[in-house]
Design goal:
about 15% helix, single chain, about 50% strand
């Protein structure tokens, strides 16, 4: 229990203490990474996340990480495209101190999302 909590705290600290950018986003056979290029992401301890783009209001979403399940659940209910594509439960496939790779499947489509520390 305490080890699990310590692990989650480390993951949360890593996520909330940095800005993140999308370095890969693939939807089925379509690579749409460039549509995320204007954005950086700020994850907050209160489980909110801001999609920030110069000259635009921050898009507000939510996030919740689970070290136990190795997932991040995110939602941008009112986010402009392409941020709406970040909504769902992402399975973390690889993580380092500067990158997070994840995937999810929905309606027969597999998505790949790579984040990198800015």
């Amino acid at each position: 229990e305490e080890v699990q909590k310590a692990k989650e705290d480390l993951v949360v600290d890593l996520i909330v203490n940095n800005l993140w950018v999308v370095t890969n986003f693939t939807e089925g056979a379509n690579n749409i990474t460039t549509s995320f290029a204007p954005y950086d992401f700020k994850f907050n301890r209160d489980e909110s996340v801001l999609g920030r783009k110069a000259g635009a209001s921050d898009a507000v979403g939510t996030w919740k990480g689970s070290a136990e399940n190795m997932t991040i659940t995110s939602s941008f209910p009112t986010g402009p495209a392409p941020l709406d594509k970040l909504t769902g439960v992402w399975n973390i496939t690889k993580t380092t101190l500067t990158t997070v790779k994840s995937t999810r499947s929905e309606n027969g489509i597999t998505y790949f999302l790579d984040l990198q520390k800015k």
